[in-house]
Amino acid sequence: MADAERKLSSGNGRIDFVTEPSRYRHWKLSVDGDVATLLMDVDEHAPLFEGYELKLNSYDLGVDIELADALERLRFEHPAVRVIMLRSGKPRVFCAGANIRMLAGASHAHKVNFCKFTNETRNGIEDASAFSGQHMICVITGSCAGGGYELALAADHIILTDDGSSTVSLPELPLLAVLPGTGGLTRVTDKRKVRRDHADVFCTTEEGIKGKRAVEWRLVDEVVPNTKLDDVVKEREREFAQKSDRPADAKGISLTPLKRKRATDSVEYSSVSVEISRGERLATITIRGPDAPAPTSTDKMVEHGADFWPLRLARELDDAILDIRLNEFDTAAIVFKSAGDPKAVLAYDDFLRANSQHWLAREIVLKWKRVLKRVDLTSRSLVTLIEPGSCFAGTLAELIFAADRSYMLIGNLEGDNRPPAAVMLGKANMDGSLPMSNGLSRLATRFLGEPQSLENAEKAAGKTLDAEAAEKLGLVTFALDDIDWEDEIRVFLEERASFSPDGLTGMEANLRFGGPETMETKIFARLTAWQNWIFQRPNAVGEEGALRRYGTGQKAVFDTKRV
Amino acid sequence: MADAERKLSSGNGRIDFVTEPSRYRHWKLSVDGDVATLLMDVDEHAPLFEGYELKLNSYDLGVDIELADALERLRFEHPAVRVIMLRSGKPRVFCAGANIRMLAGASHAHKVNFCKFTNETRNGIEDASAFSGQHMICVITGSCAGGGYELALAADHIILTDDGSSTVSLPELPLLAVLPGTGGLTRVTDKRKVRRDHADVFCTTEEGIKGKRAVEWRLVDEVVPNTKLDDVVKEREREFAQKSDRPADAKGISLTPLKRKRATDSVEYSSVSVEISRGERLATITIRGPDAPAPTSTDKMVEHGADFWPLRLARELDDAILDIRLNEFDTAAIVFKSAGDPKAVLAYDDFLRANSQHWLAREIVLKWKRVLKRVDLTSRSLVTLIEPGSCFAGTLAELIFAADRSYMLIGNLEGDNRPPAAVMLGKANMDGSLPMSNGLSRLATRFLGEPQSLENAEKAAGKTLDAEAAEKLGLVTFALDDIDWEDEIRVFLEERASFSPDGLTGMEANLRFGGPETMETKIFARLTAWQNWIFQRPNAVGEEGALRRYGTGQKAVFDTKRV
Questions:
Q1: Cα–Cα distance, A28 to A47 (Å, whole number)
Q2: Do A204 and B506 touch (CB under 8 A)?
């Protein structure tokens, strides 16, 4: 299921996104006061799939799953950490980038989703710096190539050792006929603002750039000789630590293992149920509202820790989405449902916002921002069904606006005596704390052409909106009565499953992100789309293509047409 | 050469972008006072390639070449025209969009470049409205589908006849498994700001939307019953004419045929020479500076008409670029050279800017803007060689900044006694009149990360900059002396020809456009890149794909993986 052509080294049928430091094979995480060190030390004998070795600190999705886990833990388990040092545990190499054998053998769907996940991890690094006070400094000793440099680009500050052999490079094009697709090209032009002709030279120079020129061309922030490296590193640690507003004396919470029970066609979490209907090519994700009232103090929230409902739910939803993305390629549509008390959801939202200065409340809202962005970027048709007994309020109402379409039932179906479907808006929908990649809230994006509708929606905050009211406010796509409900939705889902999966991916990638573009949308749209195109082209992936022939001693043969 | 798999109906070996109204097969252009009417009346028996018919006002590149020509003539030959009415000459159909048989049979390279050209034509319509005072009103009677609606979307105002059968639709996805790739998806979300769930319904509804709902969903501006159509049209013509600043009494100039002589490996224009070196996969475009001093009055400029050097050169360069794009797919790199007096070039620039209120001066600068954007968007590696005797000044210096790299010779080569290479900057490089698609000047884009360099460049305006000065100012990539010159350039060009053409296309599409995104860059990056991806996918173009099977009675068979 994970990748028809390949066997997972774990022997499992699915890629698992859950891990913890004691199980890391590729990273060493250590914390010393306000400085954490993430040491990349990839175990070449522990690839995610069988059939290749992770030489020279090259990585595959398994390596990145550990990195993503470590970064989450730094946020939640280590509130005192203000600086993350990213370094290599290998002597002469920083990181050789994504593993080429893995790429050459992976299915198109896996490659694309691997890149998407690694992109999200790197965006998360920048998010932690911008919003959470955890700044990353990358120290490069040895060669830092391709995806290795793309990882470095996500850091706030890049130090390159000036030893005559340490280099940065993006050799994807000359070596493999693909792009630096994990944000590389975009961060070079838009984050580091490298002059485009320098960028052209850099991206076509297999051996990379070292020393002073790397600084002059803005590729790194400083080059430092070995003799001075320790001093400079300490100095930078202090500088960046001073910029942080992380609390000095708070105690972290432990990100305990997810409660998760998997059967063939379902996954059961504490607050999330996933049902896979393979015949219909559907995944239904049902979210359960809080099972206890919002806490009365931040101490209580900290005490609940990973069990605190909003955090628990966010982690479970994230895992569910990733599982479908990478393990259920045949799923055409994800259906979101919910069950619970909308007011109780809003109460949690209000609690988090009333305490937005508290480090944990802040982290939880930031976590929701990332999870919802992950939903936005999931290449499945998204539909939200708002039924009696549901609790799409505040943060959870974002799943209505993240969906390609939403359907809301007017009144009740026969024999159902749960409260009629209601939508409730709250601060979470309006205060800018849950922006999309384009920098706007989902409501603002929705109403780009109708400022009055945005105002009306804002005025409706806190009100219990029935189907007709929600439709009138433009919050849902269709309000349907019990006569039409089942048929309309069935027809829609059948139609969705009948369309070209690729066409839908392309269409949704365009329709979901109206309005402004950011570095993030540039990465996911422009760069990713071109990379996906190239991942289909014989010049890269064909029998004679560069990706396939790499390391065989045979030169790639190219179709010379420029398209 | 144009398209290996297909034969041009003309019997020629190349697609020709030059035409004139007397040769139009598909459009009728008429002018009445300040209103022009562009009647789309496609001759189904005059396709560009053999093997399909252009039924139902469907179009191919040949139809769009005529449209582009008509729009150019409206700008230059008809200064009094303020409103362009876009209508169909067929009774029950407005336009069925791009011809499906043509798409199904075209090579990937042709499809991609066909879309690029049509995109440029539509952007040109919006440019005429925004900067040239020619506003387009589109009147839709009958069905307006796919590329037909995408053309309508380029207009300022869309009137849909309310007759129970006139519809707008984007049926590409449900019908053909491809995207509305000629700006459709982007203009729906970003120009018309259609709500994304409505857009989702619209883009998956084969039969389209009609009547009031089309207005409510922002798909058209008004629906008008047949009985009132004439009155409303007249009213809108007056409204939009009033917004225009076009001169009422100016006399247009005639866009006389280009002087062009083609041999197997070269094209000779009056101010442009193109040399094709097929072995090296190079096209060298040499631009010649003015052969007469700048005129002393706008009357003289009008008198020169299409022979006026800046206009003549712009048209010739445009034709040369298009010819390479669509007919020379094997060309890896375009080398720009120039010959002439830099000061004479600046004198023309200064003349045009001193008279920027004159309609023709304005049109000529706008033409250069479009031509230079066309260069930016050309998927060939671009390199500018600045040699002794060259005239890269002002507008022509933009070709240095549009290039992926530039090389400038220090001093002279042995035996050459032309003046040493010099670059001169002028107002054209700084006044914002020649922006890239991202809305910034090429210099501003170049120096995104170095505001001081931008200031220094601006201060150097009017100075004769030799190679070392130009390199120091960051204006050229490399300044080389006579010892290195030939070898360095040869090695670079050989290297470029050795890389994957697709990889280069993707890399250049990312590196060329740092900084802000606009609707235009969204169309060319996000939308185009996804469409290109889909144009490679078996679900669209495979034997069992939707594009191939359309009209055969057989249903497409899809790989159900969502990627």
A1: 17
A2: no
- Cα B409 from Cα A292, distance rounded (Å): 75
Quickly tell me which residue has 């992976």 as its tokens.
A106
What residues are paired with A31 via a beta bridge? A36
Cα dihedral across residues B465, B471, B476, B481: positive or negative: positive
CB contact (8 A) between residue B477 and residue A185: no
Residue A55 is classified by DSSP as: G
* Chain B touched by A438 (CB under 8 Å): no
Residue type, B327: N
Cα of first residue to Cα of last residue in chain A, in angstroms, is 34
Q: Is B276 on the interface with A (CB under 8 A)?
A: no
pLDDT band at B2 (very low <50, low <70, confident <90, very high): very low
In chain A, what residues touch B556 (CB-CB under 8 Å)? Answer: 500
Q: CB–CB of A511 and B190 under 8 A?
A: no
CA distance B26 to B44: 9
Residues 336-395 of A with CB under 8 A from B: 379-380
Backbone angles phi, psi at A427, to 5 degrees: -55, -40
Sign (positive or negative) of CA dihedral B217, B218, B220, B223: positive
Give the C-alpha separation, A481 to A415, whole Å.
15
Kind of pairing between the strands at B157-161 and B222-224: parallel
Chain A residues whose CB is inside 8 A of the B452 CB are none
Closest approach of A270 to chain B, Cα-based (Å): 28
**Which residues have a Cβ under 8 Å from the Cβ of A198 and sit 6 or more positions away?**
A217, A218, B477
B7: phi then psi, degrees, rounded to nearest 5: -105, 135
Q: Given a cut of 70, is residue B345 above it in pLDDT?
A: yes
Percent of chain B clearing pLDDT 70 (strictly above)? 99
- Cβ–Cβ contact B178 with A under 8 A: yes
Which residues in chain A have Cβ-Cβ distances shorter than 8 Å to B172?
A: 503
DSSP state of A298: H
* C-alpha span between A261 and B269 (Å, rounded): 73
Which residues lie below 8 Å from residue B481, measured CB to CB, with a gap of 6+?
B409, B410, B411
Tokens linked to A523: 């990465």
Mean pLDDT by 10 residues, chain A (563 residues): 71 95 98 98 97 97 98 98 98 96 94 97 98 98 98 98 97 96 96 98 97 98 98 98 96 97 97 97 98 96 98 98 97 98 98 98 98 98 98 98 98 92 98 97 97 98 98 98 97 97 96 93 92 95 94 94 93
ipTM over 0.90: yes
Nearest residue in B to A539, CA atom: B500
Tell which residue, A527, A232, A307, has the closest CA to residue B512.
A527
Q: At which residue do the structure tokens 């990213």 appear?
A: A86
Instruction: List, for residues B518-552, the tens digit of each pLDDT value.
Output: 999 999 988 999 999 999 999 999 999 999 999 89
Task: Give me the helix-helix angle, B309-327 and B108-131, nearest 10°.
Answer: 150
Whole-angstrom Cα distance, residue A200 to residue B56?
Answer: 45
Could you say which of A108, A406, A511 has the minimum Cβ distance to residue B563?
Answer: A108
Chain A stretch 85-124, residues whose beta carbon is closer than 8 A to a beta carbon of chain B: 107-109, 112-113
Each residue of B440-463: pLDDT tens digit?
999 999 999 999 999 999 999 999
Q: Do B189 and A561 touch (CB under 8 A)?
A: no
Number of Cβ within 10 Å of residue A414's Cβ equals 5
Q: How many CB atoms lie within 10 A of CB B317?
A: 24
Chain A residue numbers with beta carbons less than 8 Å from the beta carbon of B185 are 507, 510-511
- Is A509 within 8 Å of chain B by CB? yes
Asked if the Cβ–Cβ distance from A512 to B196 is below 8 Å, we say: yes
Shortest distance, CA A358 to any CA of chain B (angstroms):
35
Residue of A nearest to B113 (CA): A563
pTM above 0.90, yes or no: yes
